[in-house]
Amino acid sequence: MKPKVIAIGVDAPNGNQIKTWLARGELPHIKAIFDQGASGDVVHTKRFRNERCWDTFLSGRDIGSFGSSFLPDSYGYFNESLQREDRYRPFYALGEPFKVCMFDLPATLVAGVSGIQISGWGSELNVAAPLSQPPELIAQLRNRYGSDPKLAESIKVYDHQTQEVEYSYVLPSAYDLDAVLDFRSKLLTAVDRRTDICLDLLARDDWDLFLALYVESHTANHIGWHLGEKHPLSEADSSGNVQLEILRAIDLSIGRIAKALPEHATVLFYTIDHTAANSMDVPSMALLPELLYRWNFPGQQALAVGDLAHPVPAMRRDYRRHWKQEVWSLATDQGRRQLASPSQLETNGNPTSWNPATWYQPLWPTMKAFALPSVSDGYVRLNVRGREVQGIIPPEDFSHELAKISELLERAVNPRTGQPIVKQLIATREKPGDSPPIPPDLIVCWNDQFPADVLDSPECGRIGPLPYFRSGGHVAHGTLVENLFAVRGPGIAPGLRTRRGNLEDMPATILDLLRAQAPSGMTGSSLLNRDQVT
Length: 534
Prior knowledge:
Elements: E1 5-11, H1 15-23, H2 28-36, E2 38-45, H3 53-59, E3 68-71, E4 76-79, E5 99-103, E6 114-119, E7 131-133, H4 137-145, E8 155-158, E9 165-168, H5 177-202, E10 209-214, H6 216-224, H7 242-259, E11 266-272, E12 276-277, H8 281-296, H9 323-328, H10 333-338, H11 342-347, H12 356-359, E13 369-372, E14 378-382, H13 398-411, E15 413-414, E16 419-420, E17 422-427, E18 442-446, E19 455-457, E20 461-463, E21 472-473, E22 480-488, E23 501-502, H14 505-514
Parallel strand pairs: 1-10, 1-11, 2-23, 5-6, 5-10
Antiparallel strand pairs: 2-22, 3-4, 6-7, 8-9, 11-22, 12-21, 13-14, 14-18, 15-16, 17-18, 19-20
Helix pairs in contact: 5-6, 5-7, 6-7
């Protein structure tokens, strides 16, 4: 009998949490897949922008992508879209012999898929477009089942390269408990709608391969980490654990899907990516760009003026507006004159209007070094003569200036703890012309012992306090990320533990279960030996 494989992913749960909850029996339908089949772990190393783990999964190899681009001839900077990726064909583009349905993976629509492709119904990406093949299908599904509720308050933005319309969903203030709980309800509704769509699509054909992804676990960790986990915003009455609530809903949904499958179907469950307490947002997006502004323009301050002579103020809890509005309200008069306002950037359709580092972009040509609008670790770019169109630093001074910035950062502290605010600095090149595609010259990995909302610098004074943005985040560049998988089906012995694999082994395993030839260029290998699947 021809194999039928259903692969269901859960996006960015915390690895320790999901292991604990599986062991406690909180997720019985997922646990049943582990108990009734083979299971194991896969790892990858976090590199640059977090979402690029999907490149490895979709291509079946490490393509060495950075996830963002800097244009030295215009000082343009943009995050590259997984929905517009053209450097590889996804592993499931198998051609006519295989009927394939792909629902809402963060992927490009490609030729060579005999079946259905849908991307952007309810993406976790910062920006996404609703796409499908056939083109009319995504609108039909939205009309029948509804849209992803978190997109109800989305902002229209434009792709930097194509100028095509995309949408960016809006997070509530982490300080507004009612708004966060309302957002949680939207995520729960999204899980139910996503499951209804999965069941609809499953019934449309006798699929050889069905791929689906639950992203709500990722979003829940970003906005609700402090509701159930340790964080400065946590309170005694945490109103439950948002991450667990969402995973329970996903678990029930996987049970619904499994019940609808034929007995001979193979079900593969996997996690991808990882979330944890957020120690990056405020330092990378706000503290770093303001620190470099003050370093470039001694005696001037654009944002969040503090006073080193006084104790650090107690944390406020009265922020209710969106983070970008609360941070912009802390701009000085000079900052309001010199920086690009978030409202104007939003009007122009800028995808990162909410990231304060973007506000400093008009000044980059006049600065020796500036912070790029990273959504992970801090990114520092030097303005080098002959490399940047209006470069200031002579190329021969590149290493010297980089060392000065490194010293500036190493001397900065979090006054709430007295500890250095920086954990590690990673130089990406020795000379300004090395590895041109890499946007930053310096990656700043922040101290993750306590999320910083304020920075003290002997040279540049105090910046902050600032409100927190997302309580849940990701891990630093260079961190090993571990994910789980389990697979049950005909011929797979219950209780089997596979070797520890790499992320690129996961698509290879799916193709092996399907008995499909892996496309050329894939470097992963199946985690199931042929003698383990009878």
